[in-house]
Design brief:
By secondary structure, the protein is α/β, with parallel strands linked by helices. The chain has six helices and eleven strands. The strands form three sheets. Strands 5-4-1-2-3-10 form a six-stranded mixed β-sheet, with helices on both faces. Strands 8-9-11 form a three-stranded antiparallel β-sheet. Strands 6-7 form a two-stranded antiparallel ribbon. Helix 1 runs antiparallel to helix 2, helix 2 crosses helix 4 and helix 4 crosses helix 5. The protein is globular and about 45 Å long.
Length: 254
């Protein structure tokens, strides 16, 4: 099998989860693309000095004093900007039914009616479900992310979103130099905000949900591309998801 497993024509979906005991939640990320993102992941690994047949991006990689890993993460974030990201959030107790949450999520993604999901790749560890997946899609469970390289993007996306939620819940508080976002600006800025800013267009759906201004134009708030929150999530977690992910601002942030 090739390092970047080939998918059939149509939209393909790569799925991974990020589990966080501190927040008592799991984020499932479904990265959707109609382009050949897998080859882009392979090329990113090569550009950072990794061997795609042996190495892979993992969100658990040590980043401190590891410029190659940091560059790889940045490259994957750039690829994610040209994808769409659908998200499911549930408590850790529902780990056994992640694929069922995925089925619900994929039934609600904001895609044109003519768009066909042709292939779904789930990372190792996700249990099979009898829940109905998109009709006609080829579903592959237990994928090795070195062989199905697109899952590395889902790993990256799930971790980014989980970090946002941990900060929204007040569990972590990290900042980075503001100059990483705004050239020449002094001071610090929330890490979670920079992560959100890097993938906000990938999180956005097609429908404006902002209020209409005095000129008859809607504010640039959009519905999420895909978002499912389990009924079993805590009130605090549901509120954190709504604040951070319930709508997506696509207007100017500079």
């Amino acid at each position: 099998m090739s390092q970047a497993h080939r998918t059939p024509a149509g939209m393909h979906v790569f799925v991974d989860e990020s589990i966080h005991d501190r927040g008592h939640f799991i984020v499932v990320a479904a990265v959707c693309s109609e382009g050949d993102v897998q080859e882009q992941v392979v090329q990113s690994l090569l550009a950072c000095g990794f061997d795609p047949s042996r190495d892979e991006f993992k969100s658990s990689m040590a980043m401190r004093d590891n410029p190659a890993a940091q560059e790889l993460r940045q490259r994957l974030q750039l690829i994610l900007r040209h994808c769409k990201i659908a998200l499911a959030v549930c408590p850790i107790a529902e780990r056994a039914i992640l694929a069922a949450h995925l089925a619900t999520l994929l039934s609600r993604v904001d895609v044109p009616q003519e768009t066909h999901i042709s292939a779904i790749y789930l990372d190792e560890g996700m249990k099979r479900t009898n829940a109905e997946m998109p009709p006609g899609a080829v579903i592959t469970y237990g994928c090795d992310s070195r062989l199905v390289a697109g899952i590395q993007l889902a790993d990256c996306a799930a971790h980014l979103v989980a970090t946002m939620l941990l900060e929204e819940l007040g569990i972590i508080s990290k900042t980075v130099p503001a100059s990483t976002v705004y050239d020449g600006q002094e001071g610090e800025i929330e890490l979670a905000w920079t992560l959100w800013a890097s993938i906000r267009h990938a999180l956005s759906g097609r429908t404006p949900v902002g209020q209409v201004d005095e000129y008859g134009l809607p504010e640039p708030f959009m519905n999420p591309f895909g978002l499912v929150v389990s009924d079993s999530c805590s009130v605090a977690l549901k509120a954190a998801v709504e604040r951070r992910l319930g709508t997506v601002w696509i207007g100017c942030i500079h």
